[in-house]
């Protein structure tokens, strides 16, 4: 399968790339097999993701999936963001080759880790 125009677009012009110095939460995941590493930064206000940035060390599919996923969850409530699956990211990109679907799985895991880290930090503040 060739890459879709959306994959090329998000690879060439990634949205929300970078870091948030005063992030409310960070999620980082990696895949030792392929070498992809993703870090997601979240700013959260009243359970809503007001800003999101990513840093991805990996292939074009990993960068495109990270970019698309950040677009999909920005502005959503945390519970809504947790519902965004890797399949939804692949569909939004008009598909990924089978051997690159793991990139969308990694970004889903990174977002979930960031949200879980945020919730843990909020529980610790409440104690």
Structure explained in plain terms:
The chain is α+β, with helices and mostly antiparallel strands and 127 residues long. The protein has one domain: Sufe protein. Chain: A, CATH 3.90.1010. It contains 5 helices and 3 strands, in the order H-E-E-E-H-H-H-H. The protein has helices at 5-12, 60-73, 78-82, 86-92, 101-126; strands spanning 25-30, 37-45, 48-57. Strands 1-2-3 form a 3-stranded antiparallel sheet. A hairpin with a 6-residue loop joins strand 1 and strand 2 (37-45). Helix 2 crosses helix 5. The model has no long low-confidence stretch (mean pLDDT 95).
Shape: elongated
Give the termini distance in whole angstroms.
51 Å
Mean pLDDT over the full residue set: 95
Rg value: 14 Å
Task: Supply the key terms.
3-stranded antiparallel β-sheet, single chain, alpha+beta, 3 strands, 127 residues, Sufe protein. Chain: A
Question: Can you summarize this structure?
Answer:
This protein has 127 residues and is of the alpha+beta class. It is 47% helix and 20% strand.
Lay out the secondary structure.
Blueprint: H1 5-12, E1 25-30, E2 37-45, E3 48-57, H2 60-73, H3 78-82, H4 86-92, H5 101-126
Antiparallel strand pairs: 1-2, 2-3
Helix pairs in contact: 1-2, 2-5, 4-5
């Amino acid at each position: 399968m060739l890459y879709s125009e959306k994959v090329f677009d998000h690879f060439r012009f990634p949205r929300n790339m970078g870091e948030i110095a005063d992030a409310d939460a960070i999620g980082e995941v990696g895949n030792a097999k392929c070498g992809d590493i993703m870090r997601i930064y979240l700013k959260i206000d009243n359970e809503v993701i007001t800003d999101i940035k990513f840093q991805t060390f990996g292939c074009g599919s990993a960068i495109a999936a990270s970019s698309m996923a950040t677009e999909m969850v920005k502005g959503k409530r945390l519970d809504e963001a947790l519902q965004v699956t890797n399949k939804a990211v692949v569909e939004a990109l008009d598909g990924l080759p089978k051997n690159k679907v793991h990139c969308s799985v990694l970004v889903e895991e990174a977002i979930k880790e960031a949200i879980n880290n945020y919730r843990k930090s909020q529980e610790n503040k409440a104690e």
